[in-house]
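Predict structure. Chain length: 213.
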Amino acid sequence: MIAKTGVFSHTGPVAKSASRPRSAFVKYFRRLAGLCLLTLLAGGAALFYPQHLLTVDSGPVTADVMVVLGGGSNSERAKHAVELYRAGAAPKIICSGLGDAAANGNLLKKAGVPASALLLEDQSRNTRENAQLSIPLLRRLGAKRVIIVTSWYHSRRAWLCFRHYAPDITFYSRPAYAGYPASAWWPQSIRGRCGAEYLKLLEHLFYYGISPV
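Prediction complete.
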């Protein structure tokens, strides 16, 4: 009777100790599966709904200066700046970007923007340099409120860069919406540009400390 009791007292703890690793593995697997599911959902949202994640639009505002960034397609950024200027959004415009500043400036002048209202920053090669090289011009003009004009998919990163390098200036975003409907993504390569924006937001965070939010 004593020997029998000893057998049961020995096998009970062994069974429990064997079940513990299995239970821990199940919990770990469930957490990992949940994390993977959340990652897939976030990735799907980023892929199929970039308008809601990449676009920053401050709505109708007035400012001291507008900064029109180079890039985009079909001059939609400069054309949008013309619309904003005619609506009285800002009396001065800086055209920023190596190779694009002069072209955008000419488009603006042809549209009726006086040369006295224009300044060119034609040395910047990327979005960070757009901000770094335009900010001294903004300070020279005494600007306190500034509107950034770019494409919708580029608006978050551009707005964040300017805010990061000049926190004492209030920046607004009024993007151009060319290629905004999903039906226009493939013909205008918008999906690829959106994908590049996500990667560049991560690059700006890890290399330059520019928060994506």
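Summary: Confidence is low (pLDDT under 50) at residues 1-10, 33-45.
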